[in-house]
Amino acid sequence: MQHLRHLNPAQRDAVLTPSGPLLILAGAGTGKTRVITYRMAELIRRGTPAERILSVTFTNKAAKEMQHRTAELLGKNVRKKPQVSTFHALCVRILRQDITALGYPANFTIFDRGDQESAARTALRDIRVPETSLRPGDLLSRISQWKMRNQLPPEAASSAENDLDFLGATAYRRYQANLKASAAVDFDDLLLLTVQLFDEHPEILARHQARFDHVQIDEYQDTNGTQFEIVEALVRPHGNLCVVGDDDQSIYAWRGAELRHILGFASTFPGTKVIRLEDNYRCTDEILHLANTLVRNNRNRHDKQLLPHKVGVNSVRFAAFADENAEAQNVVNDINYLVQQMNVSPSDFAILFRTNEQPRVFESELRRHRLPYIVLGSMSFFDRREIRDILAYLKVLVHREDEISLLRIINVPARGIGAGTVEKIIKRAVQNGQRFWETIPDAAAAGEIPKGTLSAIQRFQELLDRYRQRLAASPKNISGLVRDLIETIDYEGEIEKQYKEPQQQLLRSAMLDELIDSIKQYEERADEPSLSEFLEESALTGRDDEDDKEEKLSQQGIKLMTLHSAKGLEFPRVYLVGLEEGLLPHKRSIDAPVESIDEERRLAYVGITRARDYLTLSRAASRMKWGKRRPSIPSRFLFEMKGMQPQSAEQEEVIIEE
DNA sequence: AAGGAGGGTTTTTTT
DNA sequence: AACCCTCCTT
Hints:
Low-confidence stretches: 644-652
Radius of gyration: 26 Å
Oligomer: single chain
Distance between the termini: 59 Å
Number of strands: 18
Strand content: 5-15%
C-alpha cells in the first residue's frame, strides 16, 4: 500500500473500492487519471489478471499513457499487459471476430471522415437530391445523430418531422446500403454494429462478457448512447463498472455525448458508490476562481466545490488587441521573452483556440521567432489531398469492393477516364444493382464507353491487378510498394501540374515522403505488418503518432491545439485566445438552442482549467473572415468572468494598436 | 477528355 | 484567402 500514501482519503477510497458500480465525480485537476490508473494497478495487485480488466479511455494517446503508467506501477510482477483501449478500438476487435454474424465480411474497411463525406455525396447523388437542398456535411451529422440514438434508416424516416428530415432519412438508407456494398463501416457503425451484434446474438455477447471481470471508463461525461449500451451489456453479469468523469467538462454533445449518463449513473446502476474528488492540485486559486465563476452560469450540472491548493499572484491576465495579427505577435513576443530572458522552457506553454483556422497566424509568428512549436491534433496530415489520394489507391488494392475510394482515384492523375463515362457507368450500375466493374462490359456493349476510354480503363485495371499480385507476393514490404506505386502513376508529375509555385510543389511532394516515412515506422513497430492493418490504424488514429519521436518533440515545444484536443492535459502557462462572440461561443452555437451555449461555456472552462500557474485570456477587436475584415465583439464569457472581479479585469486590459 | 477561367461558397469541435 | 464547382475552349 506504499504507493497509495500520496493520495488523499477520497482518492484512496476510490482506488480501494474494488467491485460494484462506482461513480467517481472528479473535477478538473483532481488527479482523476492518476486515480483510475492506480485503481487498475491495485486490482491487478490483488490478483485480477491484467487481461480481465478493461479500461476504456477517450483517445489513443490516453490509452497508451495509461497502459504505460500502470505497467510502471506494477513493476515486473505482471506478464500480461493491462487492457486499455478506446471504444472504437475495442469495437473493431469485437467486430473483426464476429461481424460476419451481421452479414458483413470480417475484413471490412473503416471509412474515415473524408471517406464518409464522399459516401454522403454519392448517396445524395444516387437519390437525386441536389446538394443545395441537403449538404453532404449536414447529411452526415444527421446520420451520426440517428446512429448515436441507435435509429436505423426506416425508423429515422418514420420519425422525421419535416421534409428535410425525411429526405435525410432516405439518403441515410442509401448511404448505409452503399457502405455495406463497399464492405465499409463508418466510425458510428463501429459502435452501432457492436450494439446490434450484442442485441441479436446473445451467445456472442456472452462470450465477450466472459472476457472481463472489471470495466473502467474515463471521461464518462462524454459517453454517448451507443457507448453506454455497449458498456451496460458488457458489465451486466457482474456490475463491476467504475466510471470517472466531470459533468462540467462535457464537450462532445455534437458527437452524441449525453450528460444524462453521468448525471443518472447512480439510478441506472443500483448500489452505486459515489466518490467526489474536489481537491484541485493543478491551478492557482485565482485561475480556479475564474473557472468556477464562469461555469456557475451553467444550470444543468452537479454543483461542486473545487478547493484550490495553490496560491497565485497575478496568475490571470486579460488582453485585447487590434486584430488577430497583433494578438499573435503579442502572445508570441510574450512567450519569446519568457523563453529567451527568463529561461522558461518552451514546453511550459500552450496556446489554445476554438477553431482550426486560428493557429495559422501563431505558427508564422512562432516560426519568425524560431521558437519550437507543435500543432497537436490537427488532422492536417491524413487530410491532405495527396495523402488521401494515395491512401485511396491502397484501400482499393486491399478492398476491391471499396467503390468510394475507387471513384476518388479512377482518374487521378488524369488517365483518360473522363467524368462523363464514369457517370454513365455509375448510372447503369445503380439501375441494375450491379457493382462498378461488373457494369463495364455491358456499358461497353451498349456503346456508352468510347474506345480510347475503354482501353484506359483496361490499363488501369491491369495496374491495380499488378499491384495486388505484388502485395500478395510480399505483403510486408509496404513502403516499397507505395514508393513504386507513386512512381508508376507519376503522382509527382500530377503535383507539378496541379501547383505552379515551386514552393508548393516541394511542400506537396514532401507530404508523400512523410507518408512513406510513417509507413516505414509502422513496419518497424508492427509484429506482422500488413497493409490492411496500417489502413485500419490510420483511420482510427487519424494520424500516426510516431511514438518516441513525437513524444520527444512534444517535450520541447510550445503546444498549439484546439480546446477539444486540450482535454485531459495541463500546462504551466496557457494562452486562451480568440475570446470573441462568434468564435467562443462559436457562431453555430449562438444560432442553435440555448444548451449549446452551455457547452461552449464548458469548453472555455476546460481551457481555463488546463492552466497550472499562469493564464492569459486574449481577444482581437477585429478579425479577417472570408477575405474581409470584420469587427469582433468581446465574448460574453469575458463579462461573466469579470462579473466577479470587474475592476481588476478592466485595469489589466491593454489594447495595442498596430 | 483536359485544362483554365470565372464564380460562388465557406469555417466548429474529432474517435 | 482558399477551395470547389461549372462552364468554356482547346
